[in-house]
Amino acid sequence: MRFGLFFIFISLFAASGIANAGNILLNSGFESGELAPWEKARDLNVNGGYQWLIDNSNVYSGTYSASVGDNYELRQDFSAIAASNIGQIQFAASAGFLSFNFFYSDGSEEQYYVFGSNTWDTYDVTENLTLSKELTGISFWGKTDTQSFVDDILISAQVSRVPEPSSLILAAIGLFGLVSLRRFRIK
């Protein structure tokens, strides 16, 4: 009987812990054929190049990517998540130059640059996070007079797993049943 109770408690705690939440971004590969929920944000257009749009002529994977022809920003915001809980931030880009920004819950932002080629490269930029902050968004910028493509953007986060209330109730009912059964057998 004691072994049974021990097993129940161990299985409850084994169900909690750390879980990979997967990609916290929506439409991260632009496979919906639309930019939404990505937003066209700031505009530093100098030479009249084209704004961010969906493109199917140059993709990293799937059917679509996002493309820009000037200095425009494409941004997605999400619920704040501790940067220390983020396992990986990665994207694919086909651009000689592309910049990206991280946005934090304290209102700050950090901008970084990648210098690549006009073929597809993948970039793991996780090390650029400020681990003491909470990340709330990411954005990408094109460059003046350069066509840039971005695809397959990943922000993989780890979250604490907490047993659902219904699981706890079922475990409590089972425990009550085991205790009742033991009392019944003793009498």
Which descriptors apply to this entry?
187 residues; alpha+beta; Jelly Rolls; six-stranded antiparallel beta sheet; five-stranded antiparallel beta sheet; 19% helix; elongated
Topology of this protein?
Elements: H1 2-15, E1 17-23, E2 39-43, E3 53-55, E4 65-68, E5 72-82, E6 86-94, E7 97-104, E8 109-115, E9 121-124, E10 134-141, E11 148-161, H2 165-186
Antiparallel strand pairs: 1-11, 2-5, 3-4, 4-11, 5-10, 6-9, 6-11, 7-8, 7-10
Q: How many domains, as an integer?
A: 1
The CATH class assignment is Mainly Beta
Question: What's the SSE pattern?
Answer: HEEEEEEEEEEEH
CATH architecture: Sandwich
Radius of gyration: 24 Å
Count of runs of 4 or more consecutive helical residues: 2
User: Would you identify the regions where 5 or more consecutive residues have pLDDT less than 50?
Assistant: 12-16
- Mean of the pLDDT scores? 84
Q: What is the end-to-end distance?
A: 16 Å
Biggest beta sheet summary: 6 strands, antiparallel
Q: Report the count of strand segments.
A: 11
Assign a percent range to the helix content: 10-25%
Provide a compact summary of the structure.
The chain has 187 residues and is an alpha+beta fold.
